[in-house]
Amino acid sequence: MRKNGPELEADMSKTPAVARRTALVVGLGISGIACAIALHRAGWLPVVVERAPARRRGGYFIAVMGVGRSAAADLGVGDRLVDHRAESMTYVIDRQGNRSPGLSFADIPINPYLTMRGDVEDAVWKTLQEVAPDTEIHFSTTPTAIEQNGDCVEVTLEGPQGVSRRWFDLVIGADGIRSTVRRLAFPPALGGLQRLGTMICAYALQEDLPTLPSGVGGQIIEPGRSFTVFPFDDRRSTVLFSWYAADPDAERKGKAAEQIRKAFGPEPLGPILEAALGQLETSEAALFDIAEQVRLSTWYQGRVVLVGDSAWCPSLYSGMGASSGLAGANVLGKRLEEHGDDIAAALADWEATMRPRIAEFQKSAGTGIGVFTPASDKAIRIRKRAMSLLTNPIVRWVFSHVGKFLPVMQQRERPIF
């Protein structure tokens, strides 16, 4: 990979050669790397900028559904994408570790790959290194202005060597839920962040929790707050705290562990939660944020387009973030190749293909919140009855064989072309 240095930074002021269409990809996460692969496959020259000084490592639990796996296969990721599901039971537990049978993502009848965000990013990264080893990548670099002028986009970039300008045929914002590209190129009237009413904190454990050794999952479910342990077959578990917040902005400004202690008090936390919070205080890669979706009336403006969380963030509760990001990148590359010089038609076709499925994924987040974090005692009782039914051996067998044909499952399984 060509990475930023003095020579390369100097080149950034030059207009790219017109013989090959160029695209700036902002963001080096799953969606951004997948976009670079898809652009290269379509005959474009991708240039990637990333605000962080280096690639992020580790991460939290994610599920890759059929939508994402088929896109990954199209992109050439192949067997780099691996299922790390644990084969043991997941339990509903209380703060002292008393437990009863429960369900987890492993019980979803379409058999998603259960892994970590960092594993998926590594898979697409290694694929990009293989298929396009000369891709320009600029770390510690971010756009500060985006101006469209007919058939090109002028982008002002700020990086280690100062400020520079460059022209592109297309700009792709794959820079996450608080996208800089969205802020610079999409007026507020087109939409933006929509809150779901909860806070989330997700991270990987360094040590096993009391009563929950590696490979064993668990959930503490209380009115308006929950704690979930996601197990893997070959590494420590990851965890997710989720709770309803009266003032999300104030909580986001505080320290994660302190806010969780307040949200899960005043009762004693118990050994499991205490151990989990102890590890959070030393975690270097925790996600602590307001649970939000991105709702926009359009995902592109002229020759600037958003992909993944920057465009539609379905939220962790949907389980479709990584999958939809992979699919969005894959389909975008296909449409750009199919429509040739007609970029406007390519973007319109791409959005028309993606939007119906994304709408379903976003809608599913409401159900996901109810499953992860029931808001009341009544909601918990309803959830408990449903879990009791689904853990019945006969019902479980039927669900595992028939459930995959349910529309909500097919939306996650069927490829997006």
From TrEMBL:
Residue ranges of the TM segments: 21-39
Keyword Transmembrane in annotation: yes
Gene Ontology molecular functions: FAD binding; monooxygenase activity
Assigned keywords, A-Z: Membrane, Monooxygenase, Oxidoreductase, Transmembrane, Transmembrane helix
Pfam family, any one: FAD_binding_3
Keyword Membrane attached: yes
InterPro entries named in the record: FAD-bd (IPR002938), FAD/NAD-bd_sf (IPR036188), FAD_aromatic-hydroxylase (IPR051704)
Top-rank taxon: Bacteria
Sequence ranges assigned to domain FAD-binding in this UniProt record: 23-339
Name of this protein: Monooxygenase FAD-binding protein
Organism: Alicycliphilus denitrificans (strain DSM 14773 / CIP 107495 / K601)
